[in-house]
TrEMBL record:
Its cofactor is [4Fe-4S] cluster. This is Ferredoxin. Coiled coil: none annotated. The keyword Iron-sulfur applies. InterPro entries: 3Fe4S_ferredoxin (IPR001080), ET_Ferredoxin (IPR052395).
Amino acid sequence: PFYTWVDKHTCIACGVCGATASGVFDYDDEGLAYVKLDNNNGTTPVPIKDEEDFIDAFESCPTESIKKLTLPNR
Ligand code: SF4
């Protein structure tokens, strides 16, 4: 499984991740991305059905703000 969170300090609100993996990412009021699965905590596994889209988003983020973990964040 994958766990993920977004570093909002480096996200530039480009909109790619939510368009690519709408099941995983959403945006706050400033357009900065966060993981909607677990309020950006990185503790809920990415659903199997969203894994491919998640990898696409991870690889497409222009600022490497999407963190990909194989264990829950803690
Ligand atoms: Fe932010 Fe990266 Fe998502 Fe763009 S793709 S909104 S920079 S996290």
